[in-house]
Amino acid sequence: MRIVPVILSGGSGTRLWPVSRESQPKPFMTFDGKSLLQRTVERANALASVEHIAVVTNMAYSYKTAEEMMKADALTPASLLLEPFGRNTAPAIALAALWAQAKFGDDVVLLVLAADHLIEHQELFADAVAKASKIAVQEGRLVLFGMTPATPETGFGYIELGTKLSGHDTACEVARFVEKPSAERAQEFVDSGRFVWNSGMFCFTAGAIHSALEQHAPDVLAAAKHVFEGCATDAAQIQFDATKFSACPDISIDYAVMERAKNVAVLPCEFGWSDIGSWKAVSDMADADDAGNAVEGKAMLVNSKGTYVKAGDRLVAAVGVEDLVVIDTPDAVLVSHKSSTQQVKEIVSRLKQGGFAEAKEHLTVERPWGKYSVVHETAGYKIKRVEVKPGQKLSLQMHRKRSEHWVVTEGEARVTIGEVTYDLPRNCSAFVPIGAKHRLENVTNEPLVIVEVQCGDYLGEDDIVRFSDVYGRV
Prior knowledge:
By secondary structure, the protein is an alpha/beta fold.
């Protein structure tokens, strides 16, 4: 039996704002020094019979995804399947299945995992994968991993357990799917013992999911086949064409297939699963004191109970509060009652509607060539600290509404302005006029740091016209 874990890494994690943002979403959040994506790759790699690992993610996250995978303790060959933008889980899984069929055949087992989950007990997880794989191969079923509910959680979908599968101790047919319930219904589900949480993790053969898509979602499969046409299966990174991909229906695999197919099974599991779906879920994992308070970073709580504080560089002090989460970042602070943390996504929605940059990016923004931090911004000018990794370079670009002044503070820069290219040592400066083509490079083995002062009537990041770029962003 050959297993190919397919890791879906496309969620924005809006309920974990202000740490998770559009440019640095939830899979890249770190817990105890490792990102959720890194942990998922390591978890998949540790399973028996793993042939290859595939990660389906957005093209904009390809460099960061590759970096996190390189950090992982993994030796299994891996491929990145790169979407130009999100189209939900059904197209993502359809494309992964077509890729796996072309590379390994119909009988390969696909283990679909989310990149942003935590699992506490690896051995129990491995046992569940082995059972699910056996059911998928021997019976041709589409197997879901259901989590035995510990609490009446309203943020998850539920699956009602049907008739037990013949010859299996715990696996069952699916009686029905239930959307996120009210608190009262969730309590009824837990009390009945007949329901499990829908984890969003699946196991099936490439041939079985292909047949299910053909029968229940032919439009999804046809669109995916059109996108996959001509793609090289052996490439380490496969970029899907944006024009073709735009025709893919925006639908989840649950709606497209799982709620319609008759050969769906659910395997109840208990291996310490969490989808880290809210700040309350994060706080529940933290070590609390006798008053139920938990603190990360520099914080002080007085006469407070059940409160979780995640502090940044600043001191966070709270007095006389109860059951709150307080999340501090350099440019945004979230204060929420623990019972309301599912509604944080509404804050993000309003920020996007209002054009707030805090919805998308942090003050420090990572790019494939390095990173930049906004030091100060006001009407007419912006100051940035820009760091370029050794051997990397920015795109050849121009701005229509701003000029830029560069001062090298560390290392040595190679600067292109117009038709002239020259090296700029430490403590020297360069001026880029409005409308001039320009590029910044680091051709040395040491980090390059510059201070950039932008001047103009408009200083948005979208005022960029790229002419060439080694990262494919033109």
